[in-house]
Specification:
It catalyses: D-glucarate = 5-dehydro-4-deoxy-D-glucarate + H2O. This is glucarate dehydratase. With about 425 residues, this protein is α/β, with parallel strands linked by helices. It is built from 13 helices and 15 strands. The chain has two domains: about 140 residues, Enolase-like, N-terminal domain (Enolase-like, domain 1), CATH 3.30.390.10; about 240 residues, TIM Barrel. Strands 7-8-9-10-11-12-13 form a seven-stranded parallel sheet, with helices on one face. Strand 14 and strand 15 form a beta hairpin. It starts with 8 loop residues before the first strand and ends in an 11-residue tail after the last helix. It binds 2,3-dihydroxy-5-OXO-hexanedioate and magnesium ion. The site of 2,3-dihydroxy-5-OXO-hexanedioate (GLR) has 13 residues, from loops.
């Protein structure tokens, strides 16, 4: 190995990008025509680089820039020091905005959210320096392929004022089954998740039943993002006995989810009521959930996600992964992490099929989703390379599109002024 002394961070570039996103409906509104991300490119004095990807909301970008200022000169192998410096950079920060989830999850740890992309980029650089994949740095791959689920969304056939997209409309069980057929044909998914919280629960339960008829034996999940009350969670959970693999976030609080969990036959998963290390004690004590859907973007990157995996195992919690609209760097990071995490118990979520294949910031070919899984890249680091032209193109798109925050609710209200946020809604 080369002297680690020379692997200090010489420079960090943070580039906001925008990529096309279809009109996917959820409990807080609808996806805007572009999804925002921030791309972190870290350069070492020794001439290596590392990649990270995170939210592109403006408050988050400002924090990334500030943290980057603190990190210059730090050795990429000193992950603890990187975490400490990120915390230092956030002193006095009141934590307003920059959550990156359109208001859906606002209680994640500020420090972990900002740290994440730097931790990923440092690990990528370490791997490139050492000639080892990140999965090896995380303890070694325990699987060669990582399973993902097909992530189904209710959607319009187009953004208002735009041409229809190739996916078409999905606003009822038939539309959802049609979408699922395309997803399965194209990517071979062996598990399917429906994003709910859009229509009354009985309609969403009917969509799940329709999927069960067409794909018997396929594990199914339903996620209303916490907009149901306890009685609805119990009713739908009981109705879908033998049909759902797990129910995800029927309610928002640990207390309400615990009440649902006690009364339904299937396990309960969350990426809303357990979103930081601080949430774990209460959820464990209340027996609120069975499965943590981890997300390295808000659990502090890959090192701290590995710590979460250890805690989950200790307390008998199952583990899988949540996703938001993302590009190839995040996908590669998820794949490397899942490869090195023994207790990934279910096929992970990904928004990958919703991204246009010709829009990314990495060179094509490293991540192929086939048979419902991605082969873990064995090339050094995350196993991907930056595509500078793709980065420049998506940055220009960011400048041109005018969006600066993810705002599913504001967009929905411009289209349907009567749209109301309410939790619980049903
Ligand atoms: O599992 C989840 O809660 C998600 O995937 C959250 C996302 O924000 C999803 O609702 C979306 O993309 O609209
Ligand atoms: Mg969820």
């Amino acid at each position: 190995m080369t002297q680690s002394q020379s692997h200090r961070i010489a420079d960090i570039q943070i580039t906001p990008v925008a990529f096309a996103d279809p009109p996917l409906l959820n409990s807080v509104g609808v996806h805007e025509p572009y999804a925002l991300r921030a791309i972190v490119v870290l350069h070492t004095e020794s001439g290596h680089y590392g990649l990270g990807e995170t939210y592109g909301d403006s408050a988050h970008l400002a924090r990334l820039e500030r943290a980057a200022g603190f990190l210059r000169g730090t050795d990429v192998f000193k992950l603890n020091q990187i975490a400490e410096l990120v915390e230092d950079s956030l002193r006095g920060d009141q934590g307003q905005g920059g959550h990156g989830t359109g208001g859906m999850v606002t209680t994640t740890s500020l420090a972990d959210r900002v740290l994440s992309a730097f931790n990923v980029a440092a690990l990528d650089a370490q791997g490139k320096i050492l000639g080892l994949p990140v999965s090896t740095l995380l303890g070694g791959a325990v699987r060669e392929r990582v399973d993902f689920s097909g992530y189904l969304f209710y959607k319009w056939d187009r953004h208002p004022g735009h041409e229809p997209d190739a996916w078409g409309e999905a606003l009822d069980p038939e539309g959802i089954v049609r979408q699922a057929r395309t997803m399965v044909e194209r990517y071979g998914f062996k598990a399917l998740k429906l994003k709910g919280g859009v229509f009354p629960p009985e309609q969403e339960a009917a969509a799940i039943e329709a999927l069960h008829q067409v794909f018997p034996g396929t594990p199914l999940r339903l996620d209303p993002n916490g907009v149901w009350n306890v009685a609805t969670g119990i009713e739908v959970g009981r109705r879908l006995d033998g049909v759902l693999e797990y129910l995800e976030d029927p309610c928002l609080s640990a207390e309400d989810n615990a009440a649902v969990r006690r009364a339904i036959p299937m396990p309960l998963a969350t990426n809303m009521c357990v979103v930081s290390f601080n949430d774990l004690p209460e959820a464990i004590e209340r027996k609120a959930i069975d499965i943590v859907l981890s997300d390295h973007h808000f659990w502090g990157g890959l090192s701290r996600s590995a710590l979460l995996a250890g805690i989950a195992r200790t307390f008998g919690l199952k583990l899988s992964m949540h996703s938001n609209s993302h590009l190839g760097i995040s996908f590669a990071a998820m794949v490397q992490l899942a490869a090195a995490t023994e207790n990934i118990d279910y096929a992970c979520d990904t928004h990958w099929p919703w991204k246009r294949p010709d829009e990314d910031v990495i060179l094509p070919g490293a991540l192929e989703l086939a048979g419902g899984a991605v082969a873990v890249p064995e090339a050094p680091g995350l196993g991907i390379e930056l595509d500078p032209e793709g980065l420049a193109r998506l940055h220009q798109q960011y400048l041109d599109c005018g969006l600066r925050e993810r705002d599913d609710t504001g967009y929905m209200r411009r289209i349907d002024p009567s749209f109301e946020l309410a939790s619980p809604r049903w």
